[in-house]
Structure formats: structure tokens, C-alpha cells
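Researcher: Re-running this chain for the archive, since the previous output was lost when a drive failed. Same request as before.
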Amino acid sequence: MNKPKAVQAAEAAECLRLQLSGLTVRAIAQELGLKPTTVQNRLTMALAAVIIPGVETLRTREGERLLHLLDRIQPAVQAGDLDAIKTAARLSESYRRLYGLNAPEQHQHQITETTQMDLAVQELIRNARAKTQLTKEAQA
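Model: Regenerated C-alpha cells:
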């Protein structure tokens, strides 16, 4: 028997909160009285519903903010103000980086530490994408 969507959403939020606090899928399942597969499904649901759209929302908001700043500084750029020109160039670079518009031959490398939580989130995202693809293929 399927639970109501509101209950599933509440479970998903709680599963994500517990995982972010450091608990494993099995520990979450035990604490919430759910099966580990249910916990995995709820985590996938939480990530698909919260994180991925949230990133796009933030990217869009930041892009709009950068365009607004470029519009505001444009009169000074047109007047030849060197500081304004430099600022506009930096804003434009930020915008291009935000949307991946830089030339392919330019490479930027950043070294970051990957935690177990990062790996778990990446695995949840991969699983969600694979599950979505399987669902699409099954419906086709």
C-alpha cells in the first residue's frame, strides 16, 4: 500500500536530514522504522525535489543579478571609464563561467576535498538518474 505523497515527502525530508547528520541508510531505516530500500527511495526523492531544482534557481538568480549589474554599469563603460570597463569585464567573465560559456580550450582546475557525504549524494543522484532512465524506457 502506497503512503500519501505528503507522508512520503515528510519521510524524504527526514531521511535527508538524518543522512546529512552522518547516519547511514541502514541507521536511518532503523531509526524511522522503514526498509533500507524505502530510505534510499526517499533520499532519491528528496534530492530530485530539493537540490537539483535549487541549484538551477540559484544559477538563474545569480545570472539575472550579473546582467542587472552589467546594465547599471553600461553608461560608465560607454563613457570610457576604465574602472567601469574592468568591472564589466569581470562581471561578464562571471556570467560566462556561471553558464559554462567559456571557450573549450580554457581550463580551470579546482581541487576540493571529497567527503563521504559528497560521495553519498553523488551516488543518490546517479541512482535517481538511472531510475528515471529505466522508467522512461519502460514507458516507451
